[in-house]
Amino acid sequence: MPDHVEPDVPQWSPVPDAFLGIYYLETRDNLHRTAEFIALEESAGSWSGGSAATPLYARSLGRVHDVHELSPGRGYAAIAYPVSNLPERGSPFAAIWLYLLAGPLFERPFADVIRLADVVLPDSLLAAFHGPRFGIAGSRALLRLGKEALLFGGIVKPGAGLTPDEVAARCEAAARGGVHLIKDDEKMNNPTYCPLLARVSAVSRALRRVEDDTGQRVIYCPHVTGRPDQMLEMARAAVAAGATGLMVNVFAAGLAALQMLSGDALTQVPIYVHSGGRSAIAHRPGNGIDVRVFA
């Protein structure tokens, strides 16, 4: 692995017919040839069969959009993956992810270092991603706070071994201390001694007392990460029980599952997206996925 810090990632403009995967590469081979291998193998792969390759196959191949070489065998490659390969309907999250990462990219030792450094989407794809339902401005509006106010967040600790009433007591104390958002710890996974609905009900009552006494509003985000169908069921139940936010770990739940939850009509509260797990695949230096890809 390299013992130096990778340079700043070059910036490429979107292209209309493809999404770009930006890869940092270190190879003992020719950098352009390595980029061409990625474009081929991470898109359609080599043509097989006795007949000549078809025009459709040719249009489905990735291509090397650009290479920014820093030194021989070291630099960045922008690979263009055709938008036409993506699903006709539904979320493109999973398909984009599979094109960027799921081929032989990290399976074959054709380069010393391979790192997905950035992703650039065209406007046609960006339209499929509506962004946070609330975002910063919407969360401030829920709290009745202007853009100049300094916001404070808190995490319920310890992350396990607490009853619903003990969680509620900690949340009430934090709220009276001026905290604006409280989330469960990711280790709070709704065990039998602290089930989701009992915890949400207890916390909601405590936070209503604080608001009645002080006027301080607090967003509480219980942890609902799980199998997609069960996560949606838990999230709906939590909101009905008084949760004013939700927390989901995106690595355990998946990007498409997060998008499903965000767009559901019965879970219209801010979602705290927990990123625990990214360091396992994004730790510099070396192979993996840069944290900017998840940001």
Task: Draw up the topology in text.
Layout: E1 18-26, H1 31-41, H2 55-60, E2 63-71, E3 74-82, H3 93-101, E4 113-120, H4 123-126, H5 135-143, E5 153-155, H6 164-176, E6 181-183, H7 196-214, E7 219-221, H8 228-240, E8 246-249, H9 250-253, H10 255-262, E9 271-274, H11 278-282, E10 288-289, H12 291-294
Helix pairs in contact: 6-7
Architecture overview:
There is one protein chain. The protein folds into two domains: 18-128, RuBisCO large subunit, N-terminal domain (Alpha-Beta Plaits, 2-Layer Sandwich), CATH 3.30.70.150; 135-278, Ribulose bisphosphate carboxylase, large subunit, C-terminal domain (TIM Barrel, Alpha-Beta Barrel). Strand 5, helix 6 (164-176) and strand 6 (181-183) form a beta-alpha-beta unit. The strands form three sheets. The chain has a five-stranded mixed beta sheet with strand order 2-3-1-4-10. A three-stranded parallel beta sheet has the order 5-6-7, with helices on both faces. It has a two-stranded parallel sheet with strand order 8-9. The protein is an alpha/beta fold and 295 residues long. The protein contains twelve helices and ten strands. The chain is elongated. The mean pLDDT is 90. It comes from Candidatus Segetimicrobium genomatis. Pfam families: RuBisCO_large, RuBisCO_large_N. InterPro entries: RuBisCO, RuBisCO_lsu_C, RuBisCO_lsu_C_sf, RuBisCO_lsu_fd_N, RuBisCO_lsu_N_sf. Belongs to the RuBisCO large chain family. Residues 136-295 form the Ribulose bisphosphate carboxylase large subunit C-terminal domain.
